[in-house]
Amino acid sequence: MATATVETAALPLIDLARDFYQDEIKDHDTYNALAERERDPELRAVLRRIAGIELKHSTFWQSLLERRNVAVPQARTSPIRLAGLRVLQRFVSSAFLVSALELGESGAFNKYLECLRHAELSEPERDQLRAIVLDEIEHEMTFRRESSKLGMSNVRDYVLGMNDGLVEILGVVTGLSAVYAGNPLAVGLSGVVVGVAGAMSMGIGAFISVRSQRQVNDALRERVEILFQVSPQRAVTEYQDRLAESGVPDTTAAEVAQRVGTNREAISRLLLPESTENELRSGLYTGLSYLIGVVFPVLPYFIAGSSLAALIGSVALAGIALALTATTVSVLSGISLRKKITEMIVAAFSAAAIAYLFGWALRAATGIDI
Question: Which residue of 92, 195, 196, 292 is most buried, as measured by CB atoms within 10 A?
């Protein structure tokens, strides 16, 4: 898994190779650390297998640097991150860990594809990098299967739902604090009403989205079956085109499509993978996690004596909750901790500041003094 945060196409090959080498070593250490304490033998075997593949990938980048007479950088995995993962592994189910690891794997192969397109590589190096791209795709699919098997395919629903609840309701109570400066209870009750409505809206939206996608996929699956009956080779060609459209190089897409051949079941699953998401579970998880996010910014308004005091508490609680959410996502997925916390807190507090200014302006314009 390559987690370099730079724009791949903008960096020279040497810098990319250094970054990718260090990332692969860190991922190797991460998966090994998780495998050491994993009790499920099947999942432990999966983690060890992927750790070995990541080590093989790091060897490719090491060799590339050595062939160009460039010193190989030291790769040291943060002991804090490894300790954090071990702590989470003790208190959090492996299902959550595996589902979160999928977030780190997702999109990693895109960085390698950019390198494949723009970097100056020899033909043998291109062939090896194509194989690495296929490995990264397989990793993402493996984690998706494992998280689904362990019943935690809805980790995104948790994260997105709670984040939306935090950010949206923080904006609501912040804006209302400027309008109802002397009535914190009115702000709190308003926040609860908006939060419940928002949770219902988010939950129903997730339910409809997953259900609609399932119905669309069922219709397309019927089309694939008809296509196989009429022209099996046309189905193979369509799969090859689909790979090319997703950014896979033409030669790699053709190779993968021909390997799959005219296996109807395989092509059908690859073109339209079976959805493992349950619309009812997705809706419930999204709505409930949204409500959990609502609690943090609303709670101080039922305790404080003024809206200003409640606002300070609301911002503090929301900031802590956002930081904890960002830290969990960062530790599990390998995303920069500082970047993720900054991204989430700045976005939330910017929205809250704008909402407060709007509420203040509305109060000034209408003369409301409550």
Answer: 195
